[in-house]
Write a structure and sequence with these properties.
Two copies of one chain form a homodimer.
Chain A (H helix, E strand, L loop, with lengths): L22 H8 L3 H9 L6 H14 L5 H8 L4 E6 L5 H15 L4 E6 L4 H13 L4 E5 L5 H10 L3 E4 L9 E4 L2 H14 L5 E5 L3 H14 L8 E4 L6 H14 L5 E5 L2 H13 L8 E4 L16 E3 L2 H17 L7 E3 L3 E3 L5
Parallel strand pairs in A: 1-2, 1-3, 3-4, 4-5, 5-11, 6-7, 6-8, 8-9
Antiparallel strand pairs in A: 10-12
Chain A binds a DNA duplex (16 and 16 nucleotides) through helix 2 and helix 4.
DNA sequence: ATGAAAGCGCTAACAG
DNA sequence: CTGTTAGCGCTTTCAT
């Protein structure tokens, strides 16, 4: 008596545990070949209604889940887009990614995201890992990348979008706004609002520094006083904002001026510390934030800040990528979405 | 005169644009076969030093980036882990994912993340898409999933972790804490702190509702008053917290009691609204939050809240998955990391 | 409308 | 230490 062995073989000889259902298995059950199943899934109109029905039934019965890995290898299209952001817990970035993802998911793309901190070397390693997944496009944050990063991205010959900043020389495409212009605009706003004294509170983000520097230069023009600066190496937090005001008040004797912060979170900390000390905002200490987070309009006093349309940034980045991949109107290399100063009670 | 055509062929006949450098190309340049390159990359000790040197040089020269898609197909290991969270902009989830990712990246795993909102049907579709990438493990948020979701996950025969909640019947593993116990604990805390009146403010999250219901039941035991409830369908925000207090004050005549919120954000809104109306916290309105966010300790008055160690949750989830994949101590099916009530000034 | 064949770029097993 | 062979599960091309 012989034993009929119908198990799949793996590699050279030997058998293994049942791996996922394949298209071939679905085809067998539906009485068609594997290719027909492939067609039924990618373009049902290419298959007769009756065949389609049997295939669908077989898929249902077997619980078949397509293997996108094999599909990507064969078709050279992964339907994967990878994104690199400094931090996934920072709402500034995650809100852009949210709309970016939403827009692309509608076209069946998935987003693979990694954190890079603010270190170009970490970014470089992450780019290599990401490219190994053969994404159909890559999204980066910012415009400063190592030469090696640029080289790899260029060699990949896929759409690349640099988000959240602009430059005349993007790797491929960029969608953002001018941080220098934003710093300048806040300086002009403060001068026009009548503030003669200013201080800055910034986190260690390179772009925040660029905004701050632009602010300081513009505010310091004839008629303006030197600006006091507090800078933190790490990321922003409410407590850092509180600490910063303490330092400005106690160590630097700062009073009767405007404190310009690199984020709403820091600004909120300044506002809280001012309140805790019984200082009037904006009477004694005026405060300007950055980002226009949800809460900016609802704290007391409400926060004067810079609004950047992060949802639009994510959406436009996604659309630029789709235009490139799916063909059609070639997207502009540089998209400047600008910013807006929102004047509320705090300054 | 003849033209020498050395271009790679694709499919059956025809030529195409230069696709990425392959292992075979690297091997050719280094004077070895493709497998040797594969070995040099996966286990350098299996290759002679001189060969290794030549291969590394060839990789450098060509700018070779490994194709993880082909690797995954051949090895049946994708080095990919997928994660499903309700929202990527919510710090509660993103902070867990951050440590989860960090822990796994150290072992060369990448994390593919998607949002599910709070809809099991959306989650079901997302699980199918994720499984098509043949991940080595899957992370889900919460313990409530559609039968079809459970079926697919079970059929995939990979480690599955349900995070942020616990149950006796996980799909595979779960790492979290008891939301019911947390609601009860807050109720006991409030009773012991002497509050006789209570109100709840909750977002539409199923787990938040479960905490609230447990709170209401426990607080309402003999000697306790009925609890007034405000529930929002959507997600939490500072302004919703402010609105909630307005409703409790103006519509329900709530006074001299404790307002228990489903998140620190809502609690912060309540605190701000109370301050805006000149009400004393905790004197006239006491407030309890949930989550112990960064800012909870630094707003004025500081927030009494429930702390959950989100970093530990992400870390333990990652370690459980690694234990499963890499072998070794089998991880416990259920890990309860508990919670802690942090008493500060607001209640 | 359907099928057969060839290959995507790699890893796994076996043989030297 | 290195090479050969046989797939992984699909898509693409060509033929019917």
């Amino acid at each position: 008596m012989s034993v009929h062995d119908d198990r799949q073989k793996t590699g050279r000889g030997g058998t293994s545990a049942p791996r996922g259902v394949t298209m071939a298995a679905v085809g067998r059950l539906a009485g068609v070949s594997q290719v027909t199943v492939s067609r039924a899934l990618s373009d049902p109109s290419k298959v007769s209604p009756e065949t389609l029905r049997r295939i669908r039934e077989a898929i249902e019965v077997t619980g078949y889940v397509p293997n996108a890995v094999a599909g990507a290898l064969a078709s050279r299209r992964s339907k994967l887009i990878t994104a690199l952001v400094p931090s996934i817990t920072n709402i500034v970035y995650s809100s852009m990614i949210q709309t970016f993802t939403g827009e692309l998911r509608a076209q069946d793309y998935q987003i693979l995201m990694s954190e890079t901190g603010f270190d170009p070397k970490v970014e470089e390693a992450a780019v290599a890992t990401h490219l190994s997944r053969r994404p159909d496009a890559v999204l980066l944050t910012g415009i400063h990348h190592s030469p090696q990063t640029r080289r790899m991205l260029l060699a990949a010959e896929i759409p690349v979008v640099e988000l959240w900043d602009i430059t005349d020389t993007p790797i491929d495409l960029c969608v953002g706004f001018s941080h220098v212009e934003s710093g300048r605009a806040v300086a002009r706003f403060c001068r026009e609002a009548g503030y003669l004294r200013a201080a800055t509170v910034s986190a260690g983000d390179e772009r925040a520094i660029r905004r701050k520097d632009a602010f300081v230069r513009e505010f310091g023009r004839p008629g303006g006083e030197a600006v006091q600066e507090v800078t933190y190496a790490g990321s922003a937090s409410l407590v850092r904002g509180r600490e910063a005001l303490v330092r400005l008040l106690d160590e630097a004797g700062f009073r009767n001026g405007v404190v310009v912060c690199s984020s709403d979170l820091l600004a909120h900390g300044v506002v809280i510390e001012a309140a805790a000390r019984g200082l009037e905002v904006p009477g004694e200490i005026a405060v300007v934030g950055f980002g226009d987070q949800d809460y900016a309009a609802h704290i007391v006093p409400s926060l004067t800040t810079v609004r950047v349309d992060r949802e639009a940034l994510g959406r436009v980045a996604a659309q630029a990528i789709l235009a490139r991949i799916e063909g059609g109107e070639p997207p502009p290399a540089v998209t400047d979405l600008g910013f807006e100063i929102i004047r509320r009670e705090s300054a």
